[in-house]
Amino acid sequence: MVRMLSSPRRRAFLVTFLVVAAGSVSALWLLANREPVPLPDARPSALEHVRGRAAATEALFVLASLRSAIDAEASPVANGAHARRTARQLDATFPRAVHWAAFDDDVSALRDLVQADDLAARTRAAELERGLLGALR
Amino acid sequence: MRALAARGQLALALVATLGPLLVTSAWAQADVAALRVMGADASPDGAAANATAATAADAPVGLAVSVDGRPPLAATRTPGLAPWLLLEPGRHRVALHDAVVTDEGAILELRARLALVDVDLEPGSLSTLVYGGDGEATTLVRDDLAHLPAAGQASVRIVHAAADAGALTIELRRQGPHAVTAGPAPAARGRDAASERDADATPMAWALAAHAAGERQEVPGDRYVLVVTGHDTPATILGPLELYGGVAYTLAITSPTPGTLATALAIDAAMPDPPPTAGTASLRFVHLSPDTPLVDVAVSGRPTFRDVEFGRRTPTVALEPGRHEVRVYPHRPPRRAQEALAGGAVTATPIEPLVRLVDLAAGSVTTLVLSGAYEPPVAEGGRGHLSIQVQPSDARIVLEGPRGYHDVLQGDQFLVGLEPGPYRAEVSRDGFVTATYETDVAADVTSLVTITLQEGEEGAPSAPLTIRQPTWRGVELQRYTEGAVPLPAIGHALVRVVHTAATVPAIDVDVARAADDAEASVLVAGLPYPNASRYVAVEAGDVDLVLRVGDSASVLHALRGVAILPGTTYTLFVTADPVTNLIWLVPLVEAVMLMHDVRSAPR
After folding, report:
1. Using a CB-CB distance cutoff of 8 angstroms, which residues of chain A are in contact with residue B247?
2. Contact list, B267 vs chain A (CB under 8 Å)
3. How many Å separate Cα B509 from the centre of its chain?
4. pLDDT digits (tens, 9 = 90+) for A80-130
5. CA distance B346 to chain A (A)
């Protein structure tokens, strides 16, 4: 070892060798431990899309129930319990459905109609059904 | 270029106008096949280089799909998924074009063709054509999802669409607290008990030739990386990927430029409210007792759901598998009990919780349904009476009242001990016009009703000669547990009915297409309270749903023209108001297959 270090050329070679070896090891270590490449992550929004779609699907049912009841002359306005429960069901599904379908619509408007005006509520329910169906398809 | 752009606009207009019309008609036919295109970013030295300077800088790169030489029908930003195309089964020539596509999938500009491929589609099949991003290479894989993964598990299918990469070994490695390396899988350390139990020491691995798809596998919902190794290439790490429990994915390995690898991830189907953690049991709660106030729910002594009101369901929560005590606390005591006590010395009554022990298995989803009547039955002293006099004297009377009261009588009647509430009498006789009359029966009062029928053509209705006595059933917790949620076939939905109306006898449910005069088919027959039917396939479209008293023509409830959406698994809870007998259907979407953006190719 002492003889090896006695020659300047050999010393230079040894230093070069050590530098290259250390660099290689570092490069290999970095390669092996490199951070994964991040991917475009659309999963949370995709799942939110599934939730919104499910809410819109359920809201369609509530609207069809309301429309069918009024068509069958089971007036929600005349039956307070009917109106209240329809309003509650709308509250349970509509905010998310309307948000998902990007409707510029206020849920409370339909809720108020359900308790005040059967015909207007039916008309509005049918309009919203068409809108939601358009978004769902 | 202008000509191409004009073609793009024309295609967009065609899609916008014809799309919805075609969808409705096409879903109604079973002899269709569905195809979607999953695209990686196109090679930058390919067609994208031909883009004009104006669009190249901020152009949203995408892929447009055309079939059999027609204008493009669907498009997607890349990486991403184009809408499903409904096609006739058989051979089709699919062309993929580089395109400028908006987030909504509208084609702004059509550029050069990237790939042209012939695909063979079987009737009723769902297939995905994966564009690998480099050259003309595509990979066609068949979608055969029959159910969602078990609760807390994600289902993954890997597609090798990187044509120039040769055979690959693809490992899906669960990411622990340590740095992910290309070496041996790190042992899971420092995890909680549930994670420790689920930790998979052996990573999921697939050896795939180019254009091949691996078997679908279930893995715990968690964060993962993909370690992709070729025969003579070092490992490439792709990720991280968040895979959620309750979701089925397709994951394509693509090659956007020669020598590079990337992934495109698509959700095939999902629970809207997936259980959060693998290896645990999942619980949700549905309030379907119309006269019960808001409730709070404690599970094993821990407040879990608050302020749940009628018609609502809670989110799904993860619990340790095993036995749990569920306590349901109403916000107030029954009103009838309060009224009874108002005149006495006692002014406050304790609220009694409803208690039930439930065994929850790992990987299962349990739905607890609150049903029955909260208000106690009316005491003898609080009942009323009803006198009905009819003309002609042998006319038939069908009388309906609170809590499912239903009686068929003939001639004058004096009924005692009736529960207070609204009553409806339908009086009929051959040769007379049928009449209906509604009245209220009050406590300790005799209500008098006199009905005289007018002569006319209308005959007696064929009402069933069944007699039901008033029923009362206290509030109960019904339990429904399931493992994997089934998924419907192409163009269909799956529907099950859960009977939670204590005052309603066994029910039949008929389904008929709203637009047709065709006879209704029986969806569910003789379903008694409290039970759930099997999942039944229903062709998607607008349908009429009719609930009848089991084995009779007596209609309880009819829902006209409700849209049943394809690729959706529904649960319909049947509940009834205990006083008015009004029937309610409370829908719950259990699973959604992402088939929403469906476009039909013109035939």
Report:
1. 47
2. 43, 46-47, 50
3. 18
4. 777 777 877 787 778 888 888 777 666 677 778 887 888 888 888 888 888
5. 30
Contact B114, B47 (CB under 8 A): yes
Size of the A and B interface in Cβ pairs below 8 Å: 129
Q: Has residue A19 got a pLDDT over 60?
A: yes
Largest CA distance in chain B: 98
Three-state DSSP class for residue B47:
helix
Cα–Cα distance, B8 to A101 (Å, whole number) = 26
HSE-CB of B14 using CA atoms within 13 angstroms: 17
**ipTM, 2 dp:** 0.73
Crossing angle between the packed helical segments A43-71 and A80-100, to the nearest 10 degrees:
150
> From the list B559, B560, B596, which residue is nearest A136 (CB)?
B596
The secondary structure element, H or E, covering residue B586 is strand B583-593
Torsion of CA B163, B169, B172, B175, to 10 degrees: -110
Written in H, E and C, the secondary structure of B69-107 is CCCCCEEEECCEECCCEEECCEEEEEEEEEEEECCCCCE
B311 and A CB contact within 8 Å? yes
Q: Report yes or no: B204 at the A interface, CB cutoff 8 Å.
A: no
Count Cβ atoms below 10 Å from residue B149 Cβ, excluding itself.
31
CB-CB neighbors (< 8 A) of A39 in chain B: 238-241, 262-263, 265
For chain A, the 3-state helix, strand and coil shares in percent, each to the nearest 5, are 80, 0, 20
